[in-house]
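Today's session is about reading a structure prediction critically. Students often jump straight to the picture, but the first step is always the sequence itself: look for stretches that repeat, for charged clusters, for runs of hydrophobic residues. Only then move on to the predicted structure, which in these notes is written as discrete structure tokens rather than atom positions. Here is the chain we will use throughout the hour.
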Amino acid sequence: MDILTDVTMSVFFLPAICYSLWLLSTNAGNEKSGRASPYIDSRKPSMHLSAEKNAPRDFDFIIGDWLVKHRRLNSRFTNCKEWTEFDGLSSTVKTLGGFGNLEDNVLYFPEGSFRALALRSFCIKSDTWSIWWLDARNPTTLDVPVVGKFSNHIGVFFADDLLDGQAIKVRFTWTATSGENPRWEQAFSKDQGRAWETNWTMDFVRAAQAMAPIQP
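Below is the predicted structure for this chain, in token form.
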């Protein structure tokens, strides 16, 4: 990964992402209290900016509102066989004229819920997607982006990262088979990709419109 590029992209995207999270949290608080939001009026339809005609459609399958079934391995690289299962909600919209998208998430861990955001952008020159993850508990830091592409409805994305000071490779796998619910998997490797340990899966089920708003 190009460190300068990662830093530049983080500086470019962080203000917009933090502002978006602030707007979302402000509106959620106002809805809970019954106050009208001065920033977002949920009673009015949102402004729609059309996508560019040549925009990629790889992630069209995930646009919209979803119920998510999470499974997370309890420990990494310890030959652990125990998983924790929990629910979540996810809502994704297109950005950048269709060359990007934002995925807003709430994850209901057994110890408490938290919010997170996935930012995806497409590079025409390299024909690849980059995916950043922003944990709202650490709102000033973007994770190292994974980079990759789709082939036959399977998207595979890689990054080099650190886990507890140890160099690892990260792999995201999106399965978007037509007629089936989307699935995401995360795997880590500590031997340069010779062996992989899957440590997180997410299975998506389309949410009814009445269930779409994020719950407190």
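Discussion point for the tutorial: The chain is about 15% helix and 45% strand.
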